[in-house]
Amino acid sequence: xxxxxxxxxxxxxxxxxxxxxxxxxxxxxxxxxxxxxxxxxxxxxxxxxxxxxxxxxxxxxxxxxxxxxxxxxxxxxxxxxxxxxxxxxxxxxxxxxxxxxxxxxxxxxxxxxxxxxxxxxxxxxxxxxxxxxxxxxxxxxxxxxxxxxxxxxxxxxxxxxxxxxxxxxxxxxxxxxxxxxxxxxxxxxxxxxxxxxxxxxxxxxxxxxxxxxxxxxxxxxxxxxxxxxxxxxxxxxxxxxxxxxxxxxxxxxxxxxxxxxxxxxxxxxxxxxxxxxxxxxx
Length: 282
Description:
Elements: H1 7-15, H2 21-34, H3 46-66, H4 74-96, H5 98-114, H6 135-144, H7 151-157, H8 165-178, H9 180-209, H10 215-240, H11 247-254, H12 258-272
Helix pairs in contact: 1-2, 3-4, 5-9, 6-12, 7-8, 8-11, 9-10, 11-12
């Protein structure tokens, strides 16, 4: 029965003496593990959550003692405590990884100077007959590319679609909220890629100062190879991530059918002779 109780109900049972302190804290931990989305831990693996909870235990013990019923429920109080403790935990991790960040800072200038400047093809002007004149099509394209929009662009684009800037901004914010979890996972993946890159730099530096033909050097080479493989796999995953809104999400935001979105994007592809493989207009 206790597995189905909310944190508020568990706290009432605890204060009434129906649950012992150790079991009460264990049930709170189990709630954290069973509902990662609610506590903003959904992008962590289970091992990471267990590490965090082990670190969080003494803070939870103090939080229970410090709670006072002064308007906020116990459940909201725990959510707030977890939210701020996660920031503290991440800050601690960043502090322990200071060597990785230092290595990246040391190598960043070499990375820029050593890489060739990319060549950008000259953009051909779009004929007037192929320019989008349908305000609905322009609006769909704007929502499709929500990830890259600035407030200044929204204000300039609003008259084109016949809307006030506040209305267009409201639609953009609505679709951003729809894709919040997706974008948060994308951000988390990028952070892990940066961290893997830092590890590669550190291992390379350690390998340079380690005497060759030693057991330690062989272990470093093996670790570096595994880290490079993981980095390559994560970069491939990032390249396959869709950062544009789906047609269904746009349809739900505008309150129209998905078929209408599909037909408008198909018309744009036909007008601009864009291949269907381009997922920006898919």
